[in-house]
Amino acid sequence: QVQLVESGGGLVQAGGSLRLSCAVSGSVISINDMGWYRQAPEKQRELVASTTSGGSTNYADSVKGRFTITRDNAKNTVYLQMNSLKPEDTAVYYCRADVRRLNSRYFEVWGQGTLVTVSS
Length: 120
Prior knowledge:
Blueprint: E1 3-7, E2 10-13, E3 18-25, E4 30-39, E5 46-51, E6 57-59, E7 67-72, E8 77-82, E9 91-100, E10 107-110, E11 114-119
Parallel strand pairs: 2-11
Antiparallel strand pairs: 1-3, 3-8, 4-5, 4-9, 5-6, 7-8, 9-10, 9-11
C-alpha cells in the first residue's frame, strides 16, 4: 500500500528549471535513503542524486552544481531542483525510497517515472 507519487516533470527549454517532487503515500514508520534516477532512451538507468535520512547527499558528476536534492521528512517528500537544464538531461526520472512499515524490514519502492524533456 506504499506508493511514491511523483510530480513536476514536463517540457522545458534549455537553461530552464524544473522541480520534481516525490511524496511517499501510505503508512510507513520510517524512510531511509531517497533518491532520483533517470533513464534516457537507449541508456541504462543511472543515479542522479540521493540523500540519506541524516542529510548526506550524493550527485552524479553530470549534474553537480546544477541539481539539488532536498527532503522534507515531515512531509515524507523528496525534491529535485534542476537548474540550467540541458538537452542531455532529457530522460524519464524515477523516484526511489527505502521505507519500512510496522514490523517489517526496509524495502525498496519506486515511483512510476516522470518524463523530463529539455528542448534546444
